[in-house]
């Protein structure tokens, strides 16, 4: 039957990719399908947020190029938090250039993303050479890739035949463990969908973001992981309390899907 009807634990036991096995197993063990999107401006804020939400998440999603005082010490301390709390790090880099350039952007530069991000993602606008370029750097390090099959925003252009091409390329490339998108896309292999644009209260923001509920995304659409940002760390929020709330909502939605 559909992967969406199987438990994360059962899928972990059979997944061909070691990092996907690790992710699904930690989701089952920690009872969480929550990823927090940590779009904060400084090292101190990122570390404090990661420590506060760490017990509740399976994945910490970062945008390291937002951090004004990024340095190697930040990476070391994030890795220590990931070890202590048991979560993976996903750098939401959205690579989109030719294979040779993305190899450099992924492995080198100020951020050396491949050295610490378990997961990153790319647009397939350039064709499948982008996947091969990223795989040359990331696969030997045990990393994995998500394709941007859809986006969460109003008027986004990743639809129809473009989304289908993402699915074909993902199925064909073992370095790809899944998608960013709103639903389960294929039963051809157990590709994991992570969904941003999730919120329990707001409908969206002033710049095109659109929010849907954990029930819509996990129970109805068969996605695997909810990604939640400002609803957890925004003004006046208690990040640990909000992360717990979203963790419970996400897990309840998963249990309803299995039932
Ligand atoms: P929010 O605060 O929950 O709206 O943050 C959403 C995060 O997910 C933010 O880091 C975005 O960069 C990211 N995102 C998204 O919102 N929509 C998408 O389609 C993709 C990423 Br891809």
From TrEMBL:
Catalytic center residues: 92 (for ompdecase activity), 94 (for ompdecase activity), 97 (for ompdecase activity)
UniProt-listed GO biological process terms: 'de novo' pyrimidine nucleobase biosynthetic process; 'de novo' UMP biosynthetic process
Orotidine 5'-phosphate decarboxylase domain boundaries: 33-246
Enzyme class (EC, first level): lyase
Keyword Lyase appears in the UniProt entry: yes
Domain of life: Eukaryota
Pfam families per the UniProt record, alphabetical: OMPdecase
Presence of the UniProt keyword Oxidoreductase in the record: no
UniProt keywords, alphabetically: Decarboxylase, Lyase, Pyrimidine biosynthesis
InterPro entries membership: Aldolase_TIM, OMPdecase, OMPdecase_AS, OMPdeCOase_dom, RibuloseP-bd_barrel
Catalytic reactions of this protein: orotidine 5'-phosphate + H(+) = UMP + CO2
EC number: 4.1.1.23
Positions that bind substrate: 39, 61, 152, 209, 229-230
Pathway: Pyrimidine metabolism; UMP biosynthesis via de novo pathway; UMP from orotate: step 2/2
GO MF annotation terms: orotate phosphoribosyltransferase activity; orotidine-5'-phosphate decarboxylase activity
Family per similarity comment: Belongs to the OMP decarboxylase family.
Protein name per Swiss-Prot or TrEMBL: Orotidine 5'-phosphate decarboxylase
Gene: URA3
């Amino acid at each position: 039957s559909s992967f969406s009807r199987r438990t994360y634990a059962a899928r972990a036991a059979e997944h061909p990719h070691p990092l996907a096995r690790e992710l699904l197993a930690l989701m089952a063990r920690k009872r969480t399908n929550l990823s927090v999107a940590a779009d904060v401006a400084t090292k101190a804020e990122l570390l404090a947020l990661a420590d506060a939400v760490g017990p509740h998440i399976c994945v910490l999603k970062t945008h390291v190029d937002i951090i004004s005082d990024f340095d190697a010490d930040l990476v070391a301390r994030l890795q220590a938090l990931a070890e202590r709390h048991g979560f993976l790090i996903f750098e939401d880099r959205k690579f989109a250039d030719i294979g040779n350039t993305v190899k450099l952007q992924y492995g080198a530069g100020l951020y050396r993303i491949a050295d610490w991000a378990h997961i990153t993602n790319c647009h397939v606008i350039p064709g499948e050479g982008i996947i091969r370029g990223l795989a040359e750097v990331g696969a030997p390090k045990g990393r994995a890739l998500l394709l941007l099959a859809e986006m969460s925003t109003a008027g986004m252009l990743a639809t129809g035949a473009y989304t289908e091409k993402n699915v074909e390329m993902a199925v064909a490339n073992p370095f790809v463990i899944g998608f960013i998108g709103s639903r389960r896309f294929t039963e051809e292999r157990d590709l994991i969908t992570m969904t941003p644009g999730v919120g329990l209260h707001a409908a969206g923001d002033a710049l095109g973001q659109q929010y849907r509920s954990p029930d819509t995304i996990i129970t109805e659409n068969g996605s695997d992981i909810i990604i939640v940002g400002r609803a957890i760390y925004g003004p006046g929020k208690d990040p640990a309390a909000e992360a717990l709330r979203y963790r419970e909502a996400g897990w309840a939605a998963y249990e309803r899907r299995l039932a």
